[in-house]
Write a structure and sequence with these properties.
Blueprint: H1 2-21, E1 40-46, H2 55-69, E2 74-79, H3 90-95, E3 101-104, H4 128-137, H5 140-148, E4 153-160, E5 167-169, E6 183-185, H6 188-196, E7 200-202, H7 206-215, E8 220-221, H8 226-232, E9 240-243, E10 252-258, H9 259-264, H10 267-301, E11 306-309, H11 312-330, H12 334-356, H13 358-368
Parallel strand pairs: 1-2, 1-3, 6-7, 6-8, 9-11
Antiparallel strand pairs: 3-10, 4-10, 5-8, 5-9
């Protein structure tokens, strides 16, 4: 009986030790136990305006998760666009070590390589669920790592806005002719497609858009969707709100970690950062679906916004040019070609499944059911 009690006591103490070890703190002596989390402050730069709903708060939430999951050992100091560097300078700041992480959209870095756009959104490409599937299980993450490594970056998905709107326009679009000559804010490969149909694509950070629309520097703009567009007040400057967005059917946002910093982290610290990004990604999809629905109702019923569907012939013309843009992008480099082929294969598989799952169900629900 004594021996049995001794064994049970020893087992209980061992279990307590395991639980204590999971608190992941730094020992009082200050010496890090192998595998434990070491105290460190990380600097995060973002491409978003400070405290901006969804986008800015997504970065803040990711930082918060890192701190909470590390038991306070890892803290993240956030610099919104313009506070430490400009929005479009975030990539270089992390690449050269001036900052440790960025939160942004990969298609802002197409000047480094057009292939970065595949990891945010491409015209007529993947939805939020599809790009998540490709990134996590279809080989996308490995190709993304390979693309970013020469720039000293380790990337992760850390948010998604879901399907975006086609944007705000000061005059109606009834044919492809109406787009010709228009100055439209649209970054990434979507902007390249607009150029091919005769529009002038302009790349502006979020904080620059309203003034450009107000001054007439641009004739139209896409940004995100009802929630974020309402926050910027675009309805005060442009009357027509068009759907659907061809350019960003599921815009994936990202965290990029300086590769030197990443390599210094132990497995536990890396797992915390990766887990925080995954958690932020998951919550953002739910958040955008919820808030977009509410904001759309406000835009239409409180502010008199006129919703317009892009004409079929306009969408068909944009689709034709999108295919050319994507194929040309694939020919830029070997890595771009391999990313395109992987993306294309995953999209084809996703489409075959969604045709008899989500698409079929939503069509039936719309036609035969209501609460």
């Amino acid at each position: 009986m004594i021996k049995r009690r001794q064994l049970l006591t020893a087992g209980a103490l061992g279990s307590a030790g395991l639980v204590a070890g999971c608190e992941c703190g730094v020992p009082s002596s200050g010496a890090a136990i192998p595998g434990s989390i070491r105290s460190r402050e990380l600097k995060m730069v973002t491409t978003w305006p400070k405290d901006f709903p969804g986008l800015g708060t997504m970065a803040e939430r990711t930082a918060q998760f890192i701190t909470e999951m590390s038991g306070g050992a890892l803290t993240v100091r956030i610099f919104s666009a313009g506070e430490l560097v400009g929005a479009f300078e975030s990539f270089d700041a992390v690449s050269n070590g001036a900052a440790d992480l960025y939160h942004g959209a990969e298609y802002y870095w197409v000047g480094k390589s057009p292939a970065f756009a595949f990891f945010t959104a491409v015209p007529f490409g993947m939805t939020a669920n599809e790009i998540m599937a490709w990134t996590e299980f279809g080989g996308g993450q490995e190709l993304w790592d390979e693309l970013a490594a020469p720039f000293n970056i380790k990337p992760f998905a850390a948010g998604n806005t879901g399907h975006q709107m086609a944007g705000w326009y000061k005059r109606e679009i009834n044919s492809i002719e109406d787009l010709r000559g228009m100055k439209i804010r649209m970054p990434g490969l979507g902007g390249d497609v607009l150029q091919r149909v005769g529009a002038a694509a302009v790349s502006l950070s979020g904080g620059e858009i309203y003034q450009a629309l107000q001054s007439g520097a641009i004739d139209g703009t896409e940004w995100v969707g009802p929630w974020n567009d309402l926050a910027f007040g675009f309805y005060r400057e442009a009357k027509y709100y068009y759907w659907p967005g061809f350019h960003e059917p599921g815009a994936q946002l990202s965290v990029g970690v300086n590769l030197g910093v990443w390599d210094e982290l132990n497995l536990q610290e890396k797992s915390i950062i990766e887990g925080a990004c995954h958690r932020a990604n998951h919550l953002s999809i739910a958040e955008y679906i919820h808030h977009n629905a509410t904001a759309l109702d406000q835009l239409v019923n409180d502010h008199g916004v006129q919703l317009r569907q892009m004409p079929d012939d306009v969408m068909a013309a944009l689709a034709r040019e999108s295919k050319i843009v994507l194929e040309e992008t694939a020919e830029i480099s070997d890595i771009a070609k391999r990313i395109f082929e992987s993306y294309k294969t995953s999209l084809e598989k996703s489409q075959a499944w969604s045709r008899i799952s989500d698409e079929a169900y939503m069509n039936i629900r719309r036609n035969v059911f209501s609460l």
